[in-house]
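--- STAGE predict ---
source: upstream dedup step, 1 unique chain passed
mode: sequence only
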Amino acid sequence: MSEKLPLSLVLITCNAAARLRDVLASVPFADEVILVDSGSTDDTALIAAEFGAQIVHHAWAGFGPQKAHAVSLAKHDWVLCLDADEALSPKLAASICAAFRSGLPEYPVYRFARCNVFMGHPLKHGEGYPDYNTRLFRKDAAHWSDDIVHEHVLSDEAPRTLEGDLLHYSADDLKTYLDKQNRYTSLAAERALARGESAPVARMLLSPLTRFLKFWLIRGGWRDGLPGFVHIAIGCQNSFMKYVKLRELRRQADASSVLSG
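--- STAGE serialize ---
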């Protein structure tokens, strides 16, 4: 695909060298590539330079605001937003090119299935698939939410679905994956506290159980074998830890309120 499309590929990065080359190589048709980086110390900049990407340094503002800033820098009206651990499958890349075949896409917002690749195995059942994500859109028709975690694209337009998978390489190794999940549960707990949510013991205990039953049994996560089981089990642990952390944050907030009163 040597022909460039009037499309800006935008990513946010921080020490993203592990997967960045694969990510950028999967989108050879983007006329512009913008990386908004929040302080990489690895080879992220060198890899980006290989692909002619523009690197903009921007202090970390949370996932939603950081991605919104990246989109605002795009010169094209159309943007494709990827994470630094995601890549287009060949089928999805072909679908995006087909949408531009007669000029600009017919519809303003597009979504596609997101497939987790975990422990070297694509997870096609249970949790997270097809997990449709809106990632290709015209800038005047959609925008990123301002959530600091679990951000998503907002639009008044109903997205059209493109064929093919967005491959999410969720873990090169379990330690890195677990470290990332620990950070995410902390952010999720902080967001829940800000929203005034509570964490009763029953919710803390039942949430991981219902999550396991839903994704392992009802949605057939058992079909993905051991990688599917490990992925769902970690998700259940995340659900538990979010509420444990929320209870701790609530306790600290209440104690601080008593002292200040």
